[in-house]
């Protein structure tokens, strides 16, 4: 009997409250260039042919997704947690319940990184699909890096070999479940949890356009970039 093929899934944590963005509600539903932010994200993922399925993970209290996103083929589960790490862990358990295997890959991608492009996701898959660990899209730091105390510079931090982590982050589902169970709630991305198990995720260079909408001013920048895309 032949082994079952390895599938690739996307998991979109979409259960945040968007406190820093000050959009008057969860930022993933704010309109950017004519569409709710999460719709841009899902449309980009839907154009990646190698993804078998996308799972969107919502807050159990979410009453906006269905209003804002109609006609999606993505799976939806209202199993989000109090932290991003919990949302991802609960989403992984849901994927397993729906038939995903421990050896399958998952690409975890923030709903709030709505400028992601299919070509960047394909580049991540190409780089990681034969890798023992997996990896993430990221950007080498260009600016000089300062540490702060009470609004003043306390130190200049060596920026050599430092990268800003983006998403998607691509790992085997089983390894990521083990890593998140081990790391707990404090990790802010999947790679940190994998690192805590002693692995070294692959850094795959991406674009600064793959930024996360976090602050109020980010909406206008995202709008400008999306409206001027060819
Ligand atoms: N408990 C949480 C927290 C965050 N997220 C998701 O993780 C991504 C990145 O998180 P972030 O930008 O921090 O979003 P928010 O938590 O919504 O923002 P803030 O921290 O400003 O409240 C977002 O797509 C967000 O919806 C999630 O699914 N579950
Ligand atoms: C996963 C992430 O987007 C990588 O940069 C980031 O760590 C999320 O952090 P947040 O504090 O939850 O926005």
Automatic annotation (TrEMBL):
It comes from Piscinibacter gummiphilus. PANTHER family: 2-C-METHYL-D-ERYTHRITOL 4-PHOSPHATE CYTIDYLYLTRANSFERASE, CHLOROPLASTIC (PTHR32125). Its EC number is 2.7.7.60. It catalyses: 2-C-methyl-D-erythritol 4-phosphate + CTP + H(+) = 4-CDP-2-C-methyl-D-erythritol + diphosphate. The record marks 20, 27 as: Transition state stabilizer. One of its GO terms (molecular function) is 2-C-methyl-D-erythritol 4-phosphate cytidylyltransferase activity. InterPro entries: IspD, IspD/TarI, IspD/TarI_cytidylyltransf_bact, ISPD_synthase_CS, Nucleotide-diphossugar_trans. Pathway: Isoprenoid biosynthesis; isopentenyl diphosphate biosynthesis via DXP pathway; isopentenyl diphosphate from 1-deoxy-D-xylulose 5-phosphate: step 2/6. It is an enzyme of class 2 (transferase). The record marks 159, 212 as: Positions MEP for the nucleophilic attack. This is 2-C-methyl-D-erythritol 4-phosphate cytidylyltransferase. Belongs to the IspD/TarI cytidylyltransferase family. IspD subfamily. Pfam families: IspD. SUPFAM superfamilies: Nucleotide-diphospho-sugar transferases.
């Amino acid at each position: 009997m032949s082994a079952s093929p390895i599938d690739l899934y996307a998991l979109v944590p979409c259960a945040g409250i968007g406190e820093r963005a000050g959009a008057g509600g969860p930022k993933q539903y704010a309109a950017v260039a004519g569409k709710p932010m999460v719709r841009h994200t899902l449309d980009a993922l839907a154009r990646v042919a190698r993804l078998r399925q996308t799972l969107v993970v919502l807050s159990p209290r979410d009453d906006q997704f269905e209003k804002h996103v109609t006609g999606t083929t993505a799976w939806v589960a209202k199993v989000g947690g109090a932290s991003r790490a919990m949302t991802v862990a609960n989403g992984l358990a849901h994927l397993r319940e729906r038939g995903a295997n421990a050896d399958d890959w998952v690409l975890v991608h923030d709903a709030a990184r709505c400028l992601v492009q299919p070509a960047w996701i394909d580049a991540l898959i190409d780089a990681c699909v034969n890798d023992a660990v997996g990896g993430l899209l990221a950007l080498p730091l260009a600016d000089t890096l300062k540490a702060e105390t009470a609004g003043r510079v306390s130190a200049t931090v060596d920026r050599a070999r430092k990268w800003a982590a983006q998403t998607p982050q691509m790992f085997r589902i089983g390894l990521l479940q083990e890593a998140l169970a081990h790391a707990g709630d404090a990790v802010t991305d999947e790679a940190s949890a994998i690192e805590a198990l002693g692995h070294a995720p692959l850094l795959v260079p991406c674009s600064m356009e793959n930024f996360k909408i976090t602050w109020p001013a980010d909406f206008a920048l995202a709008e400008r970039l999306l409206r001027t895309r060819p």
